[in-house]
Inverse folding.
């Protein structure tokens, strides 16, 4: 019996840690800025307002789709949504700079931001202290069958109970 329990503990450890040791963390980065650093002007309303280039590591096993939300919790009116994108293939590892503001992309769909537009709307804070902008990437255990143009609230409702991993990158921008 003790031998059986020992074997079961080893099997459980391999499942938790992965066969090659510790599993790799799901991480989100940008070539434009590091976590906690300033977002360059070209990705804001004070510049051409290109979407930020983003890259991430492999999502966990079982990921069927990815979704991304960018918001500003420091906005005077409360949380302000800058980007909603979903239905990304689990094989996707990046979003390039300057994604078109189309509802349907070759790999995913874009939702409506709080500027009332589809796609990315960069930082545009009032004068004062820098605001924080959180880019959150969600690995989901489901393929989303959602129409383009969803709001952050509708997306969060749809992914509730389906998030198997989440990673974030925070940038700052002030005027």
């Amino acid at each position: 019996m003790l031998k059986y329990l020992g074997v079961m503990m080893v099997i459980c450890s391999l499942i938790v840690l992965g066969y090659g040791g510790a599993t790799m963390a799901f991480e989100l980065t940008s070539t434009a800025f590091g976590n906690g650093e300033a977002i360059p002007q070209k990705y804001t309303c004070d510049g051409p307002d290109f979407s930020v280039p983003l890259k991430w590591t492999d999502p966990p096993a079982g990921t069927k789709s990815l979704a991304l939300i960018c918001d500003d919790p420091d906005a005077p009116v409360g949380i302000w949504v800058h980007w909603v994108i979903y239905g990304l293939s689990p094989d996707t590892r990046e979003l390039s700079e300057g994604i078109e503001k189309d509802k349907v992309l070759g790999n995913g769909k874009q939702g409506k931001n709080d500027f009332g537009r589809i796609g990315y709307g960069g930082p545009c804070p009032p004068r004062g202290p820098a605001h924080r902008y959180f880019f959150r990437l969600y690995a989901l255990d489901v393929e989303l069958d959602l129409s383009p143009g969803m709001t952050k609230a509708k997306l969060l409702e749809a992914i509730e109970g389906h998030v198997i991993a989440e990673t974030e990158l925070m940038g700052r921008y002030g005027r």
Notes: Residues 25-173 form a domain with the Phosphatidylethanolamine-binding Protein fold (CATH 3.90.280.10). The helical segments are 2-17, 152-159. The longest strand covers residues 163-173.
